[in-house]
Amino acid sequence: MDASTTQSATQAVQQLVQSPNYILEFTYLLASILFIFGLKGLSHPDSARRGMFLAEAGMAAAIIGTLFHPDIHFYGWIVAGLILGSLVGVAFAVWVPMTAMPQRTALSHAFGAIAASLVGIAEFLMHSSTLSLFTRSALGLEVMLGTLTTTGSLIACGKLQGTIRGTPVQFKGQQILNLLIFFAMTGCFAYSLYDPSATYYFYGMVALGFLFGVMLVIPIGSADMPVVMSLLNSYAGLSSAATGFVLGNNILIIAGTLDGFSGFILSILMCKAMNRSITNVLFGGFGAVHHAAGAGATGEMHEISLDDAAVRLAYASKVVFVPGYGLATAQAQHAVRDLANALEERGVTVKYGIHPVAGRMPGHMNVLLAEANVPYGELYEMDQINPEFPSTDVAMVVGANDVVNPDARDNPNSPIAGMPILEVDKAKSVIVLKRGQGRGFSGLENPLFFKPVTSMLYGDAKASLARLAQEVKNV
Ligand code: NAP
């Protein structure tokens, strides 16, 4: 390398280091790449942890890069915000239990959405008369999506936490009222584009956006909240992308679009796994309890004693655990792992069948079992494990109900007809761990529990599994 090349390289590096814009653009590019690889990692349990770290590193890069923004003249508020935000984030991470993760996520969406709304309102206050039509459109969209996501997410959080009634709130003329609010809100948006000096219309849109968020979510039952949240997440992402267009900020455009579309795809996947349409989730009022009996849900349930269950497990050659929402409420993930260990020590083959909507949020079972260090290789998706049930000696249902309800497959009149299930009823024997006669999220009776192949072991899943592990060791 000659002297002039070395000199120009040195100059380029000096320019990069001295110019905040270069650092900003470089960190934003790095953050975008990390977000994309992070999302890719999250698509499989094996790589999910790495994906999470990459996305976190991306967020750190984006924050650090923003600190070099040339428009920042005073760091005081930013430092205060960083400290406050970090304190709240750490408190959430330390004190919110895994079972409360859905409502905690809803609260995070509300925070993100209110931040985007406030940025939009501030931009409007400061520059509304000088902005181009395109920027004003993006700004209006940002504030509209941001405001409705804020209140929608807060209602979702309240419903999931139980502070607001979880059952759908429905009344006559509700959908017409919602349509009227929607048209009034978009009308205000359109008029504020046409006449930027008509500030009342802009603030009218803000108020109607907050109201629309409430009206959109109250008719939906708490059990459908994960789908709603994923949809609200998508709105929050699109709102952030619109903020990016308003501020001319690339990272907001990229991250917002990734968030917006991944949230939307997730909502569709969840609906598919429940065999429901998005419109059925949004307008169906599914959280209302059905109390339908279900074809074949008659006769007697057969109870099994703990000792007999332990013997059956200990002498099996293949056992498949099927976890559901009850595993999460009982926090039985470590107990199931201990029982699996005890069985494996006896030479029993152990596998786990994971239904895509088992529990109450996407990946719920994967997260819990990963926490208990269950090897990923033992987790099988529905399509992989279903053909294995006929050769399974014991299918052990741990607090699952709807995801193993054969009515979904056999009874075309069932409200969950067509929902893909884990076909545990095809196993040589089934043991169901649950506390009593409680129904699942759909409120339907489950014919599986009445089948001759099924034995019920009543009690809290964690306690039953712990005692079973002990008994298996003693057999
Ligand atoms: P589920 O149908 O809600 O059934 C859970 C069962 O666990 C109940 O029957 C309950 O019976 C039992 N249980 C509760 N606490 C227990 C404890 N401490 N020990 C032992 N058993 C306990 O659960 P699932 O089979 O996982 O199905 C999930 C449902 O949620 C599906 O209908 C799905 O469509 C819906 N959903 C899921 C998502 C998602 O993203 N995962 C999103 C929206 C909706 P007892 O009361 O008798 O114990």
**What percent of residues are in strands?**
5-15%
Low-confidence stretches: 287-291
Number of strands: 6
Distance between the termini: 76 Å
Q: Supply the number of structural domains.
A: 2
- Reading the helices and strands in chain order gives HHHHHHHHHHHHEHHEHEHEHEEH
Task: Summarize the amount of helix as a percent range.
Answer: 55-70%
Helix/strand/pairing class, anyone?
alpha/beta
How does this structure look, described?
61% of the residues lie in helices and 6% in strands. It is of the alpha/beta class and 475 residues long. The chain folds into 2 domains: 96-283, no CATH class; 306-474, TPP-binding domain (Rossmann fold), CATH 3.40.50.1220. A 6-stranded parallel sheet has the order 3-2-1-4-5-6. Strand 2, helix 15 and strand 3 (379-381) form a beta-alpha-beta unit. Helix 2 runs antiparallel to helix 3, helix 5 packs antiparallel against helix 6 and helix 5 (101-127) packs parallel to helix 9 (225-247). The chain is globular and about 75 Å long. The structure holds NADP nicotinamide-adenine-dinucleotide phosphate. NADP nicotinamide-adenine-dinucleotide phosphate binds at residues 223-224, 226-227, 270, 274, 324-326, 329-330, 357-362, 364, 399-403, 433-442, 460-461. The site of NADP nicotinamide-adenine-dinucleotide phosphate (NAP) has 35 residues, from helix 9, helix 13 and strand 5.
Summarize the structure.
Helix content is 61%, strand content 6%. It is α/β, with parallel strands linked by helices. The protein has a six-stranded parallel beta sheet with strand order 3-2-1-4-5-6.
